[in-house]
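Hello support,

Our group uses your service weekly, and this is the first time we've seen a run hang past the timeout. The protein is Probable malate:quinone oxidoreductase. I'm not sure whether the cause is the sequence or the server load. Input pasted verbatim:
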Amino acid sequence: MNSETPVDVVLIGGGIMSATLGALIKQLQPDWTVRAYERLGEVAQESSNPWNNAGTGHAALCELNYMPAAPDGSVDASKAVSINEQFQISRQLWAHLVETGALPEPHNFINVAPHMTFVRGQSNIDYLQKRFDALKDQPLFQGMEFSTDAEKIGEWTPLITKKRNPKQKIAATRIEAGTDVDFGALTRYLFDDVVKGGGEVHVNHQVTGIKRQKDGLWKLKLKHLVGNTPSQVTARFVFVGAGGGALALLQQSGIPEIRGFGGFPISGQFLRTTNPKVVAQHQAKVYGKAAVGAPPMSVPHLDTRVVNGESALLFGPYAGFTPKFLKTSTWFDLPFSIRWHNIGPMLAVAWHNFDLVKYLAGELTAGRQKKLKALQEFMPTAKMEDWELITAGQRVQVMKKDAKKGGVLQFGTEVITGADGSIAGLLGASPGASTAAPIMLDVLARCFPAQMKGWEPKIREMIPSYGTKLSDNPEAAAASLAATAKVLNIPA
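Update from on-call engineer: The timeout came from a worker crash unrelated to the input. Re-ran successfully.
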């Protein structure tokens, strides 16, 4: 298939980011042609697949890595509040799409799962108390509870306290209005809506080349992997939402903005149980504290998951290392990503992150008993025969230049845009999917500044809080939470 007429928007990668951007464009500019290319046989098979992520719906309700303690012991709520603000934008978009019929009944992709944080030991309890004090009066964190009482914590989720040493000091926080999100299902539904609006989704298509032409358009070389048939397409705008594959494609594009960026791949595994007797005793997502040197995405957590209407429990992740940037890619991803402009920052990151290297080495050598012991710190009654080990999605953390250190390992997401706005891509990992809507709105603002003024009324219709901070207005925050909760059938 060779396209002579340029496509307005080409989306590379069939994950939640491309699906969200496609859905937004179809709402804002329905006359634009949109085409997505995914190299696998289905969309949402890498990081957006529900078994490749924790589906937490990151709102910073339970994730401690968004509020680390400062050297003086104080805690700052600003990042946690910011993450929650972003998640509310995603919630508002999903609610609007449900109301307009673009998305199906919400139970197909979002379900109730209280968010909890659980810690052991007096120093961690003191920290959690400070975190609770900093968040409990925030408009977006209303309803947060704190307890050091084992009986109370056991009422919230029995598996945490059952047969635990009564002398062990523990504490937990809980927000009943947390959610579990099946980002795989959500991705498929969003792409379905793009197709209904006239867009196209081509699976088994790999982008093998990307080059800017003299006329400013982008020429993409493609290979249909069923039959190895080559083709090409020209595009006015390209979004590279290919997860771990984004770095190589952005490097191939030749845009100077990607210089100095590298990627550090981290693999992972989860323990999963579908034993109904075990699953019935735990209805929450419970996050703990990361080990020393562990990346934020490796914070241990015991999660309720609802996938295809079936409940399960997930524990992990157990981090590891592989040079692959995707679960289904090649072992040469890391070495092939090295360029003269990023080798310095990459070496600097290795020098300054010895704790991470040590942690990953320990994880790689961990056997089943060590994995079980980690689970039993959350769930003392855990038995390995109830659990199976599954491979999580591959994550690629951003490495980039830093004036002081030479290079830094950045945890989070990074939007890369070309100077003329004709190409954009996304690097990084968590909170990722949960904040897809605000990230894609940022892409639109950067790449289509001339259109944004005309789009704003529609954006505000979809996302009433757009351009404001709910955390600055308790009444607006309460109203937004109540409105989206009603549509999505979840607690406010």
